[in-house]
Amino acid sequence: MKNLFIEYPKCSTCQKAKKWLIEHNVEFTDRNIVTDVPTENELEKWIKESGEEIKKWFNTSGLKYKELQLKEKLPTMTEKEKIALLASDGMLIKRPLCITDKGILIGFKEEKWEKFFG
């Protein structure tokens, strides 16, 4: 499987991550998180594969997150409800995402990506 890079093209962090992938000759398929929102099934699978808790998948600095007051609401929601919420709007998902055969990267931290792809 080719690496799947899921981004919001206007996001500066996504732009940096994409540039990093290109500069390091990492092949990838590009996907817009807003026009092609990950499905509940995809998210369920990826969250499990990532080994990260679901709260790490939320874009906590996003306007939508704050608008919906998710900081207060998430603790009382079930995992199924959280996944449905993430699948309802790509802007709620932390980005960029890089889905690969050897793991999943959430967000862009250059050192972490160096180590992962190194």
- Low-pLDDT segments, ≥5 res: none
Count of distinct structural domains: 1
Assign an overall shape. globular
Please, what is the average pLDDT?
A: 96
Going by CATH, the homologous superfamily would be: Glutaredoxin
Rg result: 14 Å
What is the fold's blueprint, element by element?
Blueprint lengths: L2 E5 L4 H12 L4 E5 L7 H11 L12 H5 L2 H4 L5 H10 L8 E4 L2 E4 L3 H8 L1
Parallel strand pairs: 1-2
Antiparallel strand pairs: 1-3, 3-4
Q: What tags apply to this protein structure?
A:
118 residues, alpha+beta, Glutaredoxin, four-stranded mixed beta sheet, globular
Mind explaining what this structure looks like?
This protein is an alpha+beta fold. The protein has a single domain (3-117), classed as Glutaredoxin. Helix content is 42%, strand content 15%. The protein contains six helices and four strands; from the N terminus they run βαβααααββα. The chain has helices at 12-23, 40-50, 63-67, 70-73, 79-88, 110-117; strands at 3-7, 28-32, 97-100, 103-106. The protein has a four-stranded mixed beta sheet, sandwiched between helices. The chain is globular. The protein starts with a strand and ends with a helix.
In short:
The chain is of the alpha+beta class.
